[in-house]
Structures are given as C-alpha cells and as structure tokens.
Amino acid sequence: MRVDGGLAEGVEPARGVTTGSGGEIAAAWQRVKRRLRAELGEDVFASWFARLELQEVAGGVARLTVPTRFLKSWIESHYLDRVLATFRSEADGIGSIEVGVRGPMAPPRAGAPAPKPPQAVRPAPSHSHPAHDAAEPERAGRPSETAGDLGGAPLDVRLTFDSFVVGRSNALAHAAAERIARHDGGPALYNPLYFHAGVGLGKTHLLHGIGHAVKAAGRRVIYLTADRFMYGFVNALKTQSALAFKERLRAIDVLILDDVQFIQGRSIQAEFGHTLNALIDAGRQVVAAADRPPTELESLDERVRSRLAGGLVVEIGALDEALRASILQSRLEAVRATHPGFEVGPAVAEYVAKAITANGRDLEGAVNRLLAHATLTGAPVTLDTAETAIRDLVKNREPKRVKIEDIQKLVASRYNVSRSDILSERRTAAVVKPRQIAMYLSKVLTLRSLPEIGRRFGGRDHTTVLHAVRKIEKAIGEDTALCDEVELLKRMLQD
Ligand code: ADP
Ligand code: MG
C-alpha cells in the first residue's frame, strides 16, 4: 500500500485545488477514487462517488463536494470514514474531510481531467442515481458513535441483530454471531470467528450486529475495516507509538475486522499477524469477515491465513427467494416508518424478490428506487412502474462470465504477440507485460484461484501469478495510461 503522496506520472492536477502541492493532491485524489471504485465495485461507486469531487485541501481539511444534499448526507453517514482513511493512505497531511453541496452554477473543477465514466461502463437510466437524490429519504442510519482514539469505525445503528433476517443460507453465521455476542466470561468460544461471502450477503450487517450487542452488554468492542486497520498501524508506526497502539488494542474484549481481503503490505500484514496472535492468545474474541475463505487470502502470508482459518469459518450463502422476500418486507416496513404513504402491494413485492437475485444491497437499491418513483410521481407503485424502476438492477444480476482463454486472446492481439507467446517461457519485455496483464485480468475478472490461473498460463506457479497481479495493481496505481488501458480491456471483455 502506498503511504506517500507521490505524484503519479501523467496525472494532471485538478484545477482549483488550492494547496501548496496541488498536483500531488489532485493525483492522490484520483488514486483515492480509483481505489474506492475497485474496492466498492462499480455499482456502489457509480451511485455515491461518481460525482464526488475534490475542491481543495487547506489547513489539513480536504473539502469535497457533491451536487445534492442527499448525496452529502449519505456519504457522511456511510462512507466518511472510508473516504478519509483512503485519502490519508494516499496523501500526507489530510487531517479531516468535509463534504459540501456545490451549486449548479459552480462546476467544481473546470478543465480537470474528465472523471472516469462509470456511466459509460453501464449506461444507467436517468432515474438510477438521481432517484436517490430526488427522494431524499430520511435516514435514521447515523453513526452511533466514534470509537475514540483506537481508530475504530462507527457502528451503523440500522445494522442490528433485530433487523437481520435469518434464513437458510445465513442461519449458521447468525447463530455463531449471537453466541459470540452473548458470551461473557470464560475463554472465547470459536476464535477467530470468520465469515465469508460474496458482496451484499450480510457480512457487515452481522458484524455490526455483534458490535451493538457486545456494547450493550457493557463489554468493550472495536470494529475496524481493513482501511482503518491499515491506517491505524501506518499512523501508529509513523508516530512511533506502535507499542502503545497495540496495548490499547489489547484492552478490548472483542475485535471485529471487516473486509480482511483488503489488508495488504508486508509490514502491515506482519502487524496484523502479531495482533491476531496477541488477541487470540489472550483469550480475546476476534471476528473477521472477507469475500473469500482464509485459504484464498493471497495478500496474507501462510501463517496469518492459517490463524484465521483456525477457529470457526462460516460461509454465508446466496439469498434464496424466501429470504429475499423477508428482507424486502422488513426494508419496506422500515421505509414506511418515515414515509407512511409508501405502499407496495404483494404482487410488486413478489416480483421484486424474484427479480433481484444478486444480493441485499440491490434489494436496498430497489426499495430506494420504488420510493423515489412513488415520491416523484405521487402514483402508486404498479408492476409496470416497478419493472421500469429496477430494470438495470435486474439486468445486472448475471454478469457475463469471462474466460481465461478470451482474456489471453484479447490481450495478445492488443499487444501484437501471439497467445502461445503468452503461454511460453519467453521473458522478453514485449511478452512479459502482456502476460502479466492477462494474469491480472484473469484474477479480477474470473473466479479462478491463483494456482488454477498459473496452470492455464503454461503451468506456472501460483506465486508467479501473485507477483504479476501485485505488479500490475501497483503499476495501475501509478500510471494513469496503463490504468485506462486495463479499464478498456476489462470493458471489452465484459461487454
Ligand atoms: P456485505 O458486507 O456482505 O457485502 P452487507 O452486510 O453490507 O453485505 O449487506 C448489504 C445490504 O443487505 C445491507 O443493507 C444489509 O442490511 C442487507 N442485508 C443483507 N443480508 C441481510 C439479512 N439477512 N437481513 C437483513 N438485511 C440484510
Ligand atoms: Mg461489507
């Protein structure tokens, strides 16, 4: 992970950024957006961050702007910590961030490099994002606290055990979470407790649920996202108080770590390993979640992986239709608390629960769109209007499967080499770069494991693939031309 604020080559500074090193800050901001996009996914990014702009950095305060009040409050209540942590890890001297609403007459960064166009990737109907804005639903979801100087992230008050709907695919995870949360005294039960599941299947919800319950029982809990964890350590190491930081970390009963797959960097993962060992050996409960099982956390070393795998590992499966229907009902009820006139009949609800198969996040998006529609038109939600309102969510439910062979062919033709060159032993630069890009794309666009990818690239070792993936990841962060090139390849493969 980069912690310096170095200027990436070829990145133009944003105009209007008033700071001593505007170019550097602007470049760092571009990296922040790129990381948010990569980490949160195209959908979330397009909904919330595509129109987030950096206005200036002055006196350690980064001022960001968005076009609407709703976007502002949503980002503030859901993503402020994340944006701050990401920005801090990309640039020095960022103390805090503020989000403001920019007027229609004042484009924030005239002449700045055009933002990456998420809209172009997935042309969304015009109701897609602005609908959120137009509806401006009241949000009860304010962070309930800030977790003091340990650098913990706040818990979202909406994500409790009460609001978590239990079904077949998450029953075991839920039961384990409740056991942990209610356990007091005595050695930890399963340590660590590790959840894994694809995006939007309720990991974060369960983790926050544990956090609330542990706190309510008067025990000390800290919830950290990977970024928080990395930022905490990077910062602590910088100020030479790593020891004090670790001491403070040990003074807690339950440590919750979300999105562990993003923890990376040699020194950080070593610290991560020490922290895990120290906490577990001291009988403190550790709960972690990631998008994959511990064995597939390639950015962590073997010992850390096996420590994570050494407790109870629970997978949360896809939401079946019954579960989707219940989650949808509970969401609708929650919205009705603030919008009493909002009615969605059983036929429409059934249609939505059938159509949105991907995950809980899309269900939430669907409810927001229905609400926006109802608020804007004042008309009752019919099957017809529901169908239009959620069309893009439905279309997206089955992303195209990309084949490694297609990646190799496309990359080869793009770089004027042959596919057999890519599979060969040749190590000339003309072949190595496309080969590494193809390996990188295979990792990000397919579900294949590193060893499998290695096999498909002429029987290479998985460490070779990992090296390629890291190398390209790093290069993308530093070289905008390459970043664009890789984006383009991705789009060509996915269209
Ligand atoms: P993850 O962290 O696994 O990506 P989240 O916990 O953020 O997923 O869930 C995405 C959305 O779906 C959240 O709004 C969450 O409240 C909702 N959700 C997921 N599973 C459930 C569930 N079992 N009950 C209620 N809401 C759920
Ligand atoms: Mg999550």
Bound molecules: adenosine-5'-diphosphate, magnesium ion
Strand content is: 5-15%
- Looking at CATH, which topology of the largest domain would you report? Rossmann fold
Give the CATH class of the largest domain.
Alpha Beta
- What would you give as the CATH superfamily of the largest domain? P-loop containing nucleotide triphosphate hydrolases
Q: State mean pLDDT (0 to 100 scale).
A: 80
Strand order of the largest sheet: 5-6-7-4-8
List unreliable stretches of 5+ residues. Answer: 1-20, 105-148
User: End-to-end span in angstroms?
Assistant: 31 Å
Question: How many individual β-strands?
Answer: 8
Residues in helix, %: 40-55%
Q: Helix tally?
A: 23
Structural class, judged by helices and strands?
Answer: alpha/beta
Q: Which CATH architecture of the largest domain? A: 3-Layer(aba) Sandwich
Main sheet overview: 5 strands, parallel
How would you describe the shape?
A: globular
Radius of gyration: 23 Å
Tally of domains: 4
Give the oligomeric state of the chains in this entry, treating copies of one chain as homo and distinct chains as hetero: single chain
